[in-house]
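The data layer described in this paper is built around a simple, fixed record for each protein. We quote a single record here, exactly as it is kept in our systems:
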Amino acid sequence: MAHKYAQFELERRWLLAALPDALKNSQDFQLIEDRYLTGTPLRLRRMSDASGQVTALKLTQKYQAADQSAYATTITNFYLDEASYALLETLPAKVLVKRRYKLMDGRFHFSIDQFNGHLTGLVLAEIEQPDLASLVAIPHPIFARREVTTDPRFTGGELVGLTANQCLQLVREISN
């Protein structure tokens, strides 16, 4: 069931061997800190530019309904002020930190996430489209190793719970 303020998000994800060469020295990224609130389907997100200036604070609920394909999720965002964020930040959570770059490949705009902390070395690309037909028509990017859209282990909510060794093992497993 769709909720009044929910939106549908259609996206695909790919595993990359490394950050694409075009981005290796780029300082044009967003630093994203995601706090997955323990025992809830909620994510608290802080986005900052490369200089450390906060650009967005939000509370998000993102889930996949039983009737949605692996390409679709339902998402609701609430934008927060500093005081609200600071209060919610005190709740127990698992933290995931990444740099998000933008990459134009042909006529497609990809988001490239380079993970930090215990997920250092993991790089994923994602792309959103307004409809399923245009989403599935996107060719496999030349810079990508393997598509992982249908593998739920590559969602933020699952990745945040992995140890560094589990992440390494997962990447090795699907790369063979």
Remarks:
- Residues 118 and 164 are 5 Å apart (CA to CA).
- The chain has one domain: 7-175.
- The mean pLDDT is 92.
- The chain is about 15% helix and 40% strand.
